[in-house]
Amino acid sequence: MMEGGIRVKRLWIALWIAALIGVPAASAFAEENGGAAPVSDEASYFRNIDLFVSGTEGYHTFRIPSVLTTAAGTLLAFAEGRVNGASDTGDIDLVLKRSFDGGRTWQPLQLVCDAGPDTCGNPTPVQDETTGRIWLFMTRNYGEDTIAEINAGTSRGVRTIWSAYSDDEGATWSEPVDRFSEVQRPDTRWDATGPGIGIQLRHGPARGRLVIPAIGRNLQSDDHGATWYESGRLPGGLNEATVVELTDGTLMRNDRLSANQHLKRRAVSTSSDQGATWSGIEYVDALIDPICEASIVRYRPSDNAEGDRTLLFANPAHTERRENMTVRISYDDGLTWAVAKTAYKGPSAYSSLTVQPDGNVSLLFEGGEYTPYDKIMFATFNLAWFQTPEADLDRLVFSDGSLTPAFRGDVEAYTLALYRGTDRVTITPVASDNAVEISIDGTPASSGVPRTIDLNNAETIEVETRLGERTRSYAIALDRTRAAPELLTHWSFDGADENGIPDETGRGHVGILNGGAHIRPGMDGDALYLDGRRAYAEISNAEELHPGKENFTYSVWVNPDALVQQRHLLYWYGSNGKVPQWWFSVERNGAVRMNMYGLPADREIGVATAPGLVKPGQWTHLAAVRDDSVNKIYVNGELSATSVKYDGEAMDLTNRTVPPLVGFDKGVAANRDWLGYMDELRIYKHALNDADVRKLYWHGDRTKPTTAAAASPGEPNGASGWYTSDVTVTLSAADDLSGVARTEYRVNGGSWTAYAGPVLLAEEGEHTLEYRSEDAAGNVEEARSMAVRIDKTAPALRVSANPSELWAPNGELTPIRTEVEAEDDASGIERIVLDSIQVDDDGGSSPGVESREEDIEDAEFGADDREFSLRAERNGDGAGRTYTIKYMATDRAGHVAEATVEVFVTHDRSPSSTNGKE
């Protein structure tokens, strides 16, 4: 008891240290400024490590993370250790790792609960701050019982809730105790605690109560764990649960949906009477969810003196797939979620949050390179990390090879596996943030623009990104040791007849049509059609198609008529039962599945994609790949699912009892045959790499890309389609199938140039900009063109008059002929007009004849008039009269120039009477 009190005091000291470094100030700022917290002066910190790795430490898979920080600062990281497979049932233990230094180092794995061949899972711990005792709640069921059987009442038993405790920081644990009679109704069949963590209340008459979230209610103890009972019931339709206490003592539940799952949101319910009654469900739009467990935690205790209302929430922020593990902050007890930051961009699922005494936040979560269940990782970060933008790439695409791990953007070290002899590779970086600057091997690069690299003797490719002061370096190690795959079978189905399907490799793997299988027009030429009622094709001469322990690739285009059975088999090697075999199928929900059973492991490896990827009436490319220690499924050229890693030497598939069959169900029920079309079937020895699978998909691309050009200004800003300024042309290309590989342009028939950004046209004159694109399948678009005419300069205009002097001033009209010269090197002269003739008399001191309109005769203003008459007259004794004749010239772009010429009527011809003219 005394030791527990000392631990509590240490915790409060640490929390007050956290307060001194500015956490409450940030929350106060947030409350006064609409929930937006300022950027901390503290340096951004983020660290992520692998803590539990599937396939190690005696377990096939680790799942269901839970992490608790004790009052003394010890980190307890719990997980389910699944012995024989990834299934939710079977031989499952509860395991634990501990850290005494904030997660930098960890003690060896401990076994907390081992129920023999049965299931022990859903860890949900809580610490009693008064006694220091750590309670761990869990669930147990027979390993042979599935959730469907338990719910249906056909199982051997039901799922029960148990608890254990530790008084020594998790070093040892009591024997688990069955709590069924206390916290489960007699008719309960399926149940679950958390998973995650519990809390201890700090407000109201129930202060000190221990609370463990469970399906539909909380489990509570008011006597430090001696006895437990149920809270009031929540509304129905909820599943895996989390709970927090708000600053005013309100309890808030945040649950996964078991009903209304189409909403893809988190469900929130609150209790203002410490769990006795609960509000209705609110579906929080800000908290999108793919229907998965999530975690929520207070940043500081609910009774903190500063009223800090900060909550943290973590889940895979996606509506369709378990990926993009995201942490969110609320500064107002969960009313709004002001800030979100991705902690892991790849596949990810269950999570658990905890706050350490130094103010750092830790996240224990499931994730992996290809599936969310490859490992359980432990990330630690500070609040400044939330406010710091990352200089990440969204994608890094290579023309050849396979990248390991799958590119995520927040991982910096990769290996690109290439075939022997590869001497160049094209790399395309993609960044959705236009402010991210990119360089490849030190040379600036543009997002979405392919760059071809001559490899020579290079061992790495270096990609660097910069966003403000943040930089990220991606090191791509090159492995050019892999042998190119060997094509063993190729059925295009063109030329097939009643004698079978020819093997275009020449190896003699002819397809034998059975059960009404026949050839019909397909995707491009002919295709195989199977009616779903025992029609199939048998592959003859199958000796070299026995995969054994070696890699292989199976590739095919499919177009189902319908998906009506549990699954529809595309390919089955081996025979039915627990014998060496592998098969490939499309499930009724549109998912794609690959299963393998091998020896001497005597075990099954299964992997399936998300549903909906294959649709009836639509051609889809599928590939199944055995690649060393993983199985992969590609859909339309993209890696869509990967199995957990396995021991390849222990998975020998050799089975010579039955030939490989295409579209046929070898099972006892025989009701899962293929219904629809198949085309372009290929089987390879060796595993195809990512780029090769994409190219097989692109092989079905017969459509050329399309490129659009947009000029700025958007419309000619001069007359008659001419621009009067520089013009910038932006090209954008699209290709729905294989994607755009490159775009190029040329100006006025010059050399073709790779498009890397907007094209500036500044020279005056008429230009023809040609452009085209090529897609990754090699389809080249016919060149398109855009005419751009630029004239930025007004015409040159010169005018002279003959005669330029009228003598004598006798009042007679004198014919005048003007010569007008106009030039424009760009758009050319559109028109020339006589604009005006102005008369200026120097009247002198004596009255004389006044100027009149009749002094100008036969002048047609507004027309190109170059002959008219002017009167030789002047007024009084002034110096004389000046006629100013103005012409205007307009070019085709709308530029206007003007020029004048003067005709003089002098007073006399004495030197003093020349009107200032020589």
| Helical fraction | under 10%
**Low-pLDDT residue spans:** 1-40, 844-849, 913-918
* CATH fold-level assignment of the largest domain: Neuraminidase
CATH architecture of the largest domain: 6 Propeller
Structural class of the helix and strand makeup? mainly beta
DSSP strand count? 64
Strand fraction band? over 45%
Rg, Cα atoms, Å: 41 Å
- So how many helices? 5
Average predicted confidence as pLDDT: 90
Largest sheet: 8 strands, antiparallel
* Number of structural domains: 5
Question: Brief description of this entry?
Answer:
The chain has 918 residues and is mostly beta strands. 5% of the residues lie in helices and 45% in strands.
Keywords:
exo-alpha-sialidase, Sialidase_sf, disulfide bond, EC 3.2.1.18, Neuraminidase, 8-stranded antiparallel beta sheet, mainly beta, 918 residues, disordered C terminus, signal, single chain, Immunoglobulin-like, Jelly Rolls, 5 domains, 64 strands
Describe this structure in words.
The protein contains five helices and 64 strands. The strands form 13 sheets. Strands 33, 35, 36, 38, 43, 44, 45 and 48 form an eight-stranded antiparallel sheet that branches. Mean pLDDT is 90; it is low at 1-40, 844-849 and 913-918. The radius of gyration is 41 Å and the shape is extended. The chain has five domains: 46-387, Neuraminidase (6 Propeller); 393-482, Immunoglobulin-like (Sandwich); 491-699, Jelly Rolls; 706-790, Immunoglobulins (Immunoglobulin-like), CATH 2.60.40.10; 796-906, Sandwich (Immunoglobulin-like). It has 918 residues and is mostly beta strands.
